[in-house]
């Protein structure tokens, strides 16, 4: 029996994933600043919205208003009622206004897990995005505690039967990469004086995948993956 797949919202990436992501699991998108992690995450979220699903998107670094404007330019309407956007960015104003809210999310992975579970009591979300998880990691004191908390988070998400996409701009994400079901890596590099973008899948549990490094572009309609174009990294 064919495994059910859900679209990332990017046709070329779905093809690389042999049809899309396996639902009910946790995935990581990693890449340096500006590589397109947020854009990819919004494609994934809006693909769910397009199917009439409810989506929960937690933004921890880019304020909600900026995100709406930037993604609006790429044709995404983040004001859709099916798209629930939680702004957990630590701006001074927010810190004063709803300090608990920020602390609840950004300070600690266990509290974030509890907050997300509470959100599910009101509505069922088929997709959850946490963009990025950096702060949660950097505020963890002991690696072993972080690992345990991260595993607890993943188990909770699986129990909620939701598909989760996490982003990270950190170089070192071995704990997460080891624990999640799939990893997509975004890279930019200089090829003959031009900024070139390339992506690869480094892990996808329960499925085969295209193991080539493929080029992608960020256009005024978002990310386009050229899954017919292979790249040799310098
Ligand atoms: N219309 C467009 N055409 C080309 N590139 C664009 C367009 N709109 C945005 N970009 C590029 O997309 C990139 C931003 O993507 P995005 O915010 O998804 O990256 P990110 O990996 O989430 O970055 P960060 O780590 O800073 O959060 C920028 O490099 C920007 O120049
Ligand atoms: Mg981003």
CATH architecture: 3-Layer(aba) Sandwich
Number of E-state strands: 9
List the domain count as a whole number: 1
Strand content: 25-35%
CATH topology: Rossmann fold
CATH superfamily: P-loop containing nucleotide triphosphate hydrolases
Order of helices and strands: HEHEHEHHHEHHEHEEEE
Biggest beta sheet summary: 9 strands, mixed
Low-confidence stretches: 94-99
- What is the helix fraction of residues, given as a range? 25-40%
Query: What is the global morphology?
Result: globular
Listed once per kind, the bound small molecules are: adenosine-5'-triphosphate, magnesium ion
| Widest beta sheet: strand line-up | 3-2-4-5-1-6-7-8-9
In DSSP terms (H or I, runs of 4 or more residues), the helix count works out at: 9
Structural class: alpha/beta
**Average pLDDT over all residues:** 90
Estimated radius of gyration: 17 Å
């Amino acid at each position: 029996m064919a495994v059910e797949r859900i679209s990332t919202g990017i046709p070329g990436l779905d093809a690389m994933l042999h049809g899309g992501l396996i639902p009910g699991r946790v995935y990581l998108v990693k890449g340096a600043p500006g590589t397109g992690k947020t854009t990819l995450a919004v494609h994934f979220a809006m693909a769910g919205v397009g199917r009439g699903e409810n989506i929960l998107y937690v933004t921890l670094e880019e304020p909600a208003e900026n995100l709406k404007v930037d993604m609006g330019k790429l044709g995404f309407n983040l004001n859709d009622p099916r798209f629930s956007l939680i702004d957990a960015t630590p701006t001074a104003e927010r810190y004063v206004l709803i300090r608990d809210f920020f602390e609840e999310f950004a300070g600690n992975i266990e509290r974030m897990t509890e907050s997300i579970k509470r959100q599910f009591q009101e509505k069922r979300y088929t997709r959850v995005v946490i963009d990025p998880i950096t702060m949660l990691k950097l505020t963890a004191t002991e690696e072993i505690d972080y690992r345990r908390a991260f595993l607890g988070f993943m188990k909770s998400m699986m129990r909620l039967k939701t598909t989760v996409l996490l982003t990270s701009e950190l170089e070192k994400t071995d704990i997460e990469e080891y624990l999640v079901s799939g990893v997509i890596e975004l890279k930019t590099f200089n090829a003959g004086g031009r900024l070139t973008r390339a992506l690869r899948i480094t892990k996808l549990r329960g499925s085969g995948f295209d193991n080539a490094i493929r080029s992608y572009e960020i256009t005024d309609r978002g990310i386009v993956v050229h899954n017919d174009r292979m790249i040799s990294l310098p």
